[in-house]
Amino acid sequence: MDLPLQPILYNPGTHAHLIPHFASLHATCIIQDHTIVNFIPPLAPSRIESWWQARALEVTNGSRDILFLLSSNSHASSQSKDGVVAGVVMLNKPEAETGPFRGLVEKLLVAPGCRRQGVARCLMAALENVARRGGRTLLMLDTETGSPAEGMYPQLGYTKIGVIPKYSISPKDGSLKSETFFYKDLRSS
């Protein structure tokens, strides 16, 4: 896989053309892997794209960062004029006077053809650097209990907080799935 050395920090003025590709990757993860990420089939591509456009507006207003990796891997789900979107991840920066140092890791999505090649680790390392530079030193995230991601986060230094049973609706069959929550204190890593 031909990846850049560092993930790219999304800039709405420069990268707006990638929104449909982020939406396509999002849909691919739902359909192929049954990943629990906001939507359930039947999917409406326009709704997913609108959702990503709203996230891009949050980048503009400073409440979110989006990082992505491009690759020349033709097996990834969404190809733009710049290459294939290999993966994407977001840092939500909630406004809170009592916790301006907190950040939420959201939507770590990796194209099926780009998995097991370090994309997720690379994106997470870059997200943590962006978070540190922005003063967001306590990160939290959640993932479906039993998913491959649940095993990856402890390897990246995240501490399991606990599990909430029957937290989300599965896009596979409509059943209720449990969610595992993690945190990482970047001040101690």
Written account of the structure:
The chain is α+β, with helices and mostly antiparallel strands. It is built from five helices and eight strands; from the N terminus they run βαααββββαβαββ. Strands 1, 2, 3, 4, 5, 6, 7 and 8 form an eight-stranded mixed β-sheet that branches. Strand 5, helix 4 and strand 6 form a beta-alpha-beta unit. Helix 2 (19-33) packs across helix 3. The longest helix has 16 residues, at 45-60. The model has no long low-confidence stretch (mean pLDDT 92).
What would you say about this model in short?
The protein has 189 residues and is an alpha+beta fold. The protein is 31% helix and 31% strand. Helix 2 packs across helix 3 (45-60).
Strand runs, count:
8
- How big a fraction of the residues is strand? 25-35%
- What summary fits the major beta sheet? 8 strands, mixed
Termini separation (Å)?
29 Å
Q: State Rg.
A: 16 Å
Order of helices and strands: EHHHEEEEHEHEE
Principal-axes geometry comes out as globular
Overall average pLDDT: 92
Secondary-structure-derived class:
alpha+beta
Parts with pLDDT < 50 across at least 5 consecutive residues: none
**Total helical elements:** 5
Helix fraction, binned, reads 25-40%
Map the helices and strands.
Blueprint: E1 8-9, H1 12-15, H2 19-33, H3 45-60, E2 64-71, E3 79-80, E4 83-92, E5 102-110, H4 119-133, E6 138-144, H5 148-155, E7 159-169, E8 176-185
Parallel strand pairs: 5-6
Antiparallel strand pairs: 1-2, 2-4, 3-4, 4-5, 6-8, 7-8
Helix pairs in contact: 2-3
